[in-house]
Amino acid sequence: MSAALEAVLGEVKFNADGLVPAIVQEDETGEVLMMAWMNEESLRLTVERRRTVFYSRSRRELWAKGDTSGDIQDVRSLYYDCDGDTLLVRVVQHGKGACHTGNRTCFFREIELG
Amino acid sequence: MSAALEAVLGEVKFNADGLVPAIVQEDETGEVLMMAWMNEESLRLTVERRRTVFYSRSRRELWAKGDTSGDIQDVRSLYYDCDGDTLLVRVVQHGKGACHTGNRTCFFREIELG
User: Fold this and answer.
1) Domain spanning A12-93: which superfamily?
2) How far is B10 from chain A (nearest CA, A)?
3) In DSSP terms, which residues pair with B51 in a beta bridge?
4) What global pTM score does this model have?
5) B82:A3 CB<8 A
6) Ramachandran area for residue B39 (φ above 0: left; ψ -120 to 50: alpha; else beta)
7) Alpha helix (H) residue ranges in A1-114
8) How confident is the model at residue A1 (pLDDT cuts 50, 70, 90)?
C-alpha cells in the first residue's frame, strides 16, 4: 500500500512542536543509521527531492542532510507507523556515513545487558 | 565498545518528560519493527530482564511489551546514539509481530515519493 503525501498528511501526528521522529535505515544493509526530526515542510521536501531534509531542534531551521558534509541520503522508500507518529526512511547513504562523529551509524555505543 | 548501564545513564538524555525514544529492530532480519518510549526505570528493567519494557505516554505507566499479547521481545543488544538521546534495541520478536494491528512491523504503510 502506497499513498501520496497529501492523502497521508492528515494521518501523520506531528507533536506539540510540529515535529515527528524519522528513523533512517540503510536500504541495502538494514543498518539503522540515525534518528532525526521532521516538520511538515521537511517531510514535503524529503518526498519531493527524494533526499532527506530534517528540522534541527537546536538551530531551529531546516537541515538538508549532507549539504555541508557531503553525506547525503537518497531516499529509496518512506513509511509511517500504525499510530502515524513515527517515520521510517530507507536510504542510500553517501559519503563516510550518517554520523557527525565520522562513524557510519550514530548507534556505535553499546550498553551491556544485565 | 560496551559499557554498563550505570556508566551510561549520565550520557543518556531523557527529554523534559523523562523519556527517550527507543527504536526496536529485529536482530535476525534487520527489519525496523516499532518505536516506543522508555523512561529510566523501563530502561533499567529492559537491561535487567533482557526483554523490552517501555513507558506508555497515553496510559502513563510502564508497559512490558507482550505481557497481554504474548508478543514479547527478547533483547539481543542495546545501543545509544552519538547525542545520547535515542536508543536502538535489537530483539528477537515472539508471537505474531510487534504491531497491535497484527502486522509484523508498525511501519506497514508507505508514502509515495514525488
Assistant:
1) Phosphoribosyl-AMP cyclohydrolase (3.10.20.810)
2) 13
3) B74
4) 0.97
5) no
6) beta
7) 5-8, 40-49
8) low
φ and ψ of B47, to 5 deg? -70, -45
This model of the complex carries an ipTM of 0.96
Q: For chain B, how big is the Rg over CA atoms in Å? A: 14
d(CA B112, CA A39): 18
Option in A47, A49, A107 nearest B111 (CB): A47
Q: Looking at the partner chain, which of B3, B106, B113 has a beta carbon nearest the beta carbon of A111?
A: B3
Q: By the 8 A CB rule, do A22 and A89 touch?
A: yes
- CA–CA separation, B16 vs B26, rounded Å? 29
pLDDT of the residue at B1: 59
CATH of B13-93, one of 3.10.20.810, 3.90.10.10, 3.40.50.960, 3.40.630.30: 3.10.20.810
Q: How far apart are CA B100 and CA B27, in angstroms?
A: 20
